[in-house]
């Protein structure tokens, strides 16, 4: 059975989340603001992001079944982020394919990549000197960006997508990027062999959890976790300590 790159991300947040999902619990459903930000980042042209954005409002309301007045209110609250999205240099994001489905039986991985950027090749000597990959996997993230680089979880998920792209297209993928859309930042990173190994290691742990193995987790992150109400780990650990 395939392990989704999404599951790798869940495991890296907390292995218990993989267990909860395997029990049929939905972990981290995106809220209205994040849903809208993600839609705008992927589907809106920069010139559409000015003024009343009526087309985006109608589309988001229809696709995600959110009342139009809620969409308008959220967009008004996110004007700063939206103008930062509009100012991202287009050559970092285009030409591209969006929401690319990938899977590999050999790797045992699958996923839907947010954006696959296909940089134009420069011609002549400059092209040889400034050689870039034929394709760059790009993740859209609606949370805050780290001070520099990308979050470790994003880097390891990028490594998973890079391996899937290499398998499907027979090319080398050595660079990935993360679009932190709330901050209007696009951060590029090298994809390291360590991250590839880590992605495959997590894939194996996810399989074990799905086979019924209970993950061993700490409670350091529980106080800020949206699943703490139903997870039960914290109260278990605390009662063992008493
Ligand atoms: S409440 Fe704690 S143990 Fe449970 S999923 Fe969240 S972080 Fe993990």
Detailed description of the structure:
- The chain is an alpha/beta fold.
- It has a domain at 3-30 and 88-210: Lambda Exonuclease, Chain A (Alpha-Beta Complex).
- 47% of the residues lie in helices and 16% in strands.
- It has eleven helices and six strands.
- The chain has helices at 5-13, 15-22, 32-43, 54-64, 68-77, 79-86, 124-129, 152-169, 193-210, 228-231, 233-241; strands at residues 3-4, 96-104, 109-117, 136-141, 175-180, 185-190.
- Helix 1 (5-13) packs antiparallel against helix 8.
- The longest helix is centred in the middle third of the chain and has 18 residues, at 152-169.
- The chain starts with a strand and ends with a helix.
- Iron/sulfur cluster (SF4) is lined by residues 14, 16-17, 217, 219, 221-222, 225, 227-228, 231, 233-234.
Largest sheet: 6 strands, mixed
CATH architecture of one domain: Alpha-Beta Complex
DSSP helix fraction:
40-55%
CATH class of one domain: Alpha Beta
Write the layout of secondary structure elements.
Layout: E1 3-4, H1 5-13, H2 15-22, H3 32-43, H4 54-64, H5 68-77, H6 79-86, E2 96-104, E3 109-117, H7 124-129, E4 136-141, H8 152-169, E5 175-180, E6 185-190, H9 193-210, H10 228-231, H11 233-241
Parallel strand pairs: 1-3, 4-5
Antiparallel strand pairs: 2-3, 3-4, 5-6
Helix pairs in contact: 1-2, 1-8, 1-9, 3-5, 4-5, 8-9
The structure holds iron/sulfur cluster.
């Amino acid at each position: 059975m395939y392990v989704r790159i999404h599951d790798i991300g869940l495991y890296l947040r907390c292995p218990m989340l993989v267990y909860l999902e395997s029990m049929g619990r939905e972990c981290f459903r995106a809220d209205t603001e994040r849903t809208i930000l993600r839609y705008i980042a992927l589907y809106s042209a920069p010139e559409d992001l000015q003024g009343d954005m009526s087309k985006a409002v109608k589309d988001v309301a229809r696709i995600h079944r959110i009342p139009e007045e809620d969409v308008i209110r959220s967009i008004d609250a996110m004007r700063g982020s939206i103008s930062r999205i509009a100012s991202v240099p287009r050559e970092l994001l285009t030409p591209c394919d969006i929401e690319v489905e990938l899977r590999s039986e050999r790797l045992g991985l699958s996923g839907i990549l947010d954006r696959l950027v296909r940089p134009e090749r420069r011609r002549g000597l400059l092209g040889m000197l400034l050689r870039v990959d034929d394709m760059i996997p790009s993740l859209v993230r609606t949370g805050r960006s780290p001070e520099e680089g990308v979050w470790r979880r994003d880097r390891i998920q990028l490594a998973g997508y890079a391996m899937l792209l290499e398998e499907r297209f027979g090319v080398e993928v050595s660079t990935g990027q993360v679009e932190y859309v709330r901050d209007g930042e696009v951060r590029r990173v090298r994809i390291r062999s360590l991250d590839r190994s880590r992605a495959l290691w997590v894939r194996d742990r996810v399989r074990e959890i799905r086979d019924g193995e209970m993950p061993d987790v700490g409670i350091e992150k529980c106080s800020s976790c949206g699943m703490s109400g139903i997870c039960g780990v914290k109260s278990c650990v605390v009662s063992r300590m008493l």
